[in-house]
């Protein structure tokens, strides 16, 4: 079984393939997905220099609204 550290590093490697937004020099990803309870969740990931900050923003039953 993989440790939480190995899972996290694998996740961050895969994250590099996704588009991100820039805020000054920070790379920012907002990932929207359905969790195991079928609720919408959002992860906010911020890369500042070589450090990743991962925050769980919200879980809700409400359907997300398309932007743009």
Q: Tags for this entry?
A:
globular, 4 strands, 68 residues, alpha+beta
Give structural notes.
By secondary structure, the protein is of the alpha+beta class. The chain has one domain (4-60). The protein is built from one helix and four strands, in the order αββββ. The protein has one helix at 4-15, and strands at 21-23, 26-34, 40-48, 51-60. Strands 1-2-3-4 form a four-stranded antiparallel β-sheet, with no helix packed on it. It is globular, with a radius of gyration of 13 Å. The model has no long low-confidence stretch (mean pLDDT 85).
Radius of gyration: 13 Å
Q: Supply the number of structural domains.
A: 1
Q: So what's the overall shape?
A: globular
Topology, number of strands = 4
Helix fraction by DSSP (H/I, runs of at least 4): 10-25%
Strand order of the largest sheet: 1-2-3-4
Major sheet: size, sense and barrel closure? 4 strands, antiparallel
Could you give the order of the helices and strands? HEEEE
Q: Low-confidence runs (pLDDT<50, min 5 residues)?
A: none
Count of helix runs: 1
**Residue-averaged pLDDT, rounded?**
85
Q: Quickly give the structural class.
A: alpha+beta
Estimate the strand proportion: over 45%
């Amino acid at each position: 079984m993989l440790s939480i550290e190995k899972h996290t590093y694998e996740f961050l490697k895969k994250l590099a393939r996704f588009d991100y937004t820039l805020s000054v020099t920070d790379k920012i990803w907002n990932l929207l997905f359905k969790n195991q309870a079928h609720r919408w969740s959002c992860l906010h990931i911020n890369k500042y220099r070589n450090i990743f900050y991962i925050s769980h923003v919200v879980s809700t039953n409400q359907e997300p609204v398309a932007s743009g």
